[in-house]
Structures are given as structure tokens and as C-alpha cells.
Fold this protein.
Amino acid sequence: MSDACAPLTFYTHPQSRGRTARWMLEECGAPYDTVVLEYGTTMKAPAYLALHPMGKVPALQHGDVVVTETAAICTYLADVFPEKGLAPPAGSPQRAAYYRWLFFSAGPLETAVTAKALNLLAPAEQAVMVGYGSYASVMDTLEHAVLQARPHLCGEPFTAADLYVGSHLQWGMQFGTIERRPTFEAFVQPLLQRPAYLRAAAIDDALAAASQSHANANG
């Protein structure tokens, strides 16, 4: 595992999945540097492609280690900063639930929501071919998990799984790609009151406003 004291550099854009990764960074409470990249330009520049060949954000550099994919960044940070209690103990039933809902959200949930937004959901007769099965089954499965939360997905403590699932729900309901079910809203509401979330949102909102002002000034 990397030295927790190694410098952290966060590559992001304020209107991207990087908002979720920043929330996780704020939960960890460690200092980090932010590099804001722009779509189509600095994200595709050779220097960044050397770190992330897909030219997408977010990415996290921790010393000599580079981590991409939002769920991986959240999981990695929870392990690097165990004192924050953002992951259940290894080998425990709670750890199994933690992995389950992180991977469910990064896989079936993300895929189903994206397919729905693009009008590319698999027809019923081909549902067996796709990992998410159907959009309805994904939503029902997630609702069942949220209903069983006591009060979080892995039991009492808040973990990176709650953060990642909560981000998906908040983002999806905001933009209409996830149904506004009362159970989803009830689960997300207290998460969005966490001090780390509020700090992260304020940072990204300010960056987004500055970016828009710059674009208007140069338009």
C-alpha cells in the first residue's frame, strides 16, 4: 500500500464524476492538490494521457501510484486512510456488502442508467445478454438495498459504498436518469448534509462558476 503521507494530486473537472471523488477526498481529510482539466483539450494532452490513456476524469495520483475510475478511487482512499472508518473490516459480512454495492453501482447501475439516458436499453427478449438485466430490476434491487439500510448500506457506519451509491442517486435524480422514488430521496438527504459533502460541493460549484465566467468573457 502507498505511503499515506505521499502527496495526492487530483485531476478533475467540476462538472464530472470527479465531484464524487472529491467528496471522498474531503471525507478522508488529507491535503491534496487539484488540477482542473478541460474537455477536449487538456484532458487529451500528452502529459495527462500518460497518466490516464482514456483522457477522462477523475484520476488520482498518490506518490507514484495512479488510480482511475471513481469507484476505484473511493475504495483506494478508504484503504489508504483506514483511521477514517470508511470501509468495514476485511473479511466481515459488512465488507461483503460494501463490495457488493460498490460493484453493483459501478456495473449494473451505471450501465442501466447510461443506456436509459441514451435510449439504448436492451429489449426484453435480449435482457439476458446484458449485465444489468433490465432498468426496472436495477431500480428495484437498489430500492430494496436502501430499504434494508440500518441506517447505511453496510450497517451502522457510513462508508465509501454509501458515498458512491448516494452520489449516483443524487446525480441521477437531479438529471432525471434515475426515478425520484421516496426511498431514494430519504436515503440521499442525510448524506448531502455531511460536512465533507458540503465542502466538496462548494469547491466544485465555485470552480464551475469560474469556468463559466471565463467562457463568457472569451465568448
